[in-house]
Amino acid sequence: xxxxxxxxxxxxxxxxxxxxxxxxxxxxxxxxxxxxxxxxxxxxxxxxxxxxxxxxxxxxxxxxxxxxxxxxxxxxxxxxxxxxxxxxxxxxxxxxxxxxxxxxxxxxxxxxxxxxxxxxxxxxxxxxxxxxxxxxxxxxxxxxxxxxxxxxxxxxx
Length: 157
Hints:
Immunoglobulin-like; five-stranded antiparallel sheet; single chain; 32% strand; alpha+beta; four-stranded antiparallel sheet
């Protein structure tokens, strides 16, 4: 099919590109980035990964070309990685229908860890609420015991 595409009169169709992780991202946890090239023709495309601007080729897996009902093609590329704060990944696809590479960038969106002072503050608030709960519970128990004792006064029976 690739050989026949060189002699075709059909116009080139530039790929649409999406870049996303396979699973929810956590720092220091292995994951896989997926680069998805879709709706292109002919089925000739080169996919390239970069991490912080440097080309990455180790561990990369490219799928075969998958046909679509509209006679266009799609292809996947997979990059296993361990997310680090500050890393920027990109996937670029070179195709005959594009002037230059079609590229998407991705970086981990991981919330900042809480500072030590805020963690200490929340610990202190939790401790204060716990002590207040113990004091209130003890007061309620003592009150109930006193009422019970007052209701048990010996009667005339």
